[in-house]
Amino acid sequence: MAIERKFVQEGAKRMLIREYLEKETERAGFGGLEIQRTPLGTLLSLSTERPGIVIGRGGKNVKALTRNLEDHFGLENPQLEVEEIGNQAPLNGQIMAQKVASALERGWHFRRVGHSTVRRIMGSGARGCQVIISGKITGSRHRTEKFTKGHVKYCGEVASEVMDEGIAVAKKKAGVLGVKVRIMRPDAKMPDEVEIVHEPDEEEKKEETAPTEEAEEQKAAPAKKEKKEKKPAKKKQKAAPEASQMDELNLKDISGIGGSMMKRLQKAGIEDVRELYEMSIDDLTEVKGIGVTKAKQLKDAIEKAVKQ
What we know:
The protein is of the alpha+beta class. Helices cover 46% and strands 19% of the residues. It contains 13 helices and seven strands.
């Protein structure tokens, strides 16, 4: 057999295996299939939205699928692995195409389905997406409706690398509708997106690692603050007048102290200016015949006399 024919047959077999697994796991949300040849046999990695349905109780469904793959397609020691897509389902083109087809079959309007699918895909962080619905959508004639948002690549190697594509079919009374969903994932890297990484030289590394004067000052500043905080704040005290200056004054020399006031102070035991100066306004009000106003006047008069 020619090598070209062998490659064609191998590709056709892979396509038939994909269609078979897609049909069998439609309820579980078929998300994609990867086939690898290993020394131990054939490894099939199946991505689904709900892996529990594919596995079955006690692995019953998986064993049945593995046995059918070996019998109908002649695979050598097939090993089927089921992976869960989880929260990444809105970024899988095949799953979203199946959801669009299912919504159309249930009677949803095509515009409602298209716009809601685009919003869901873009809300999951995709850089761009496109939903294409083609067939007898509303009338007897075939037409195509496209719903596009964000960045979408249509052809070339870039499109095959960054775009995830899914195809599904919706069966309606008027005929079948083809659905195609194309998604650009959030981690897709375009050829024109270049990142320039600057690697510092040895001298720059030394400058970065060496402590600067500002950094040393900043380190020393907290220590100084702590020392300042530890020291108790000294209360500002009024400078007391000299004893000789007070001894020279007499109660009669202070304005506001007449004969009657002098008798009241003497009855209260106040005989010199020093005792009167050290008394507060509350203490003076306790003297019989001296109110708050008179006490304030006496304090002001004593301070003026002492400062002169």
